[in-house]
User: Fold Putative ferric cations import ATP-binding protein fbpC from Gluconacetobacter diazotrophicus.
Amino acid sequence: MFEPSSFPPCGGTLPRGIAPRGLSVRGLCNPHAGPVDFDVPGGACLVLTGMSGAGKTVLLRMIADLDPHQGDVALDGRLCRAMPAHLWRRQVVYCPAEPGWWSDSVLDHLPDDARTRDLLARAGLRDGLLRDPLHRLSTGERQRLALVRGLRQDPRVLLLDEPCSALDEATTRKVETILHAEKARGVAIVLISHDPRQADRMADLRCHMEHGRFARVGS
Assistant:
């Protein structure tokens, strides 16, 4: 049963009860969001809703250990601060709304192999995209390509910031099929979405954010 937590003061004593499995967040905060406590078991999807500027993206970035924060995040009972950052980010993969790239060549980000081609096909992307420069791809193609890149790391947690915002309904359903398959293999997902229909299809847990805090929590 997913229950709203009491929100301790930022920097106060961390609550007990880090979950032995899945993603656990305790007292997580910075000046822009939190403090919040919640758990997402493996195989479940927490959908975050709220207006732009409510703190949803900041929360994902703190979980991914990309923004400074207080509080703790743990995966399967192991604290983020107890492992090197690069190992945490391989297991807890963050896909931002506007993905970042270090090269204009798609092949510099993904290998051309059977697994990549399978993921591309499942996401509704063509094989030839691997040979295209990134600047020629649409926003929706880049969003799905970033998801494929993240899935190649075999993550335990996916942090997804509006991954379907530039997609039509049919393509959105393809992405959701991939996400349901990830849930089936035990991946915990935290998904930001402004689409109430997508929230209904994907959510096992829900949190609505206002002013950096959880205003409503449910399942």
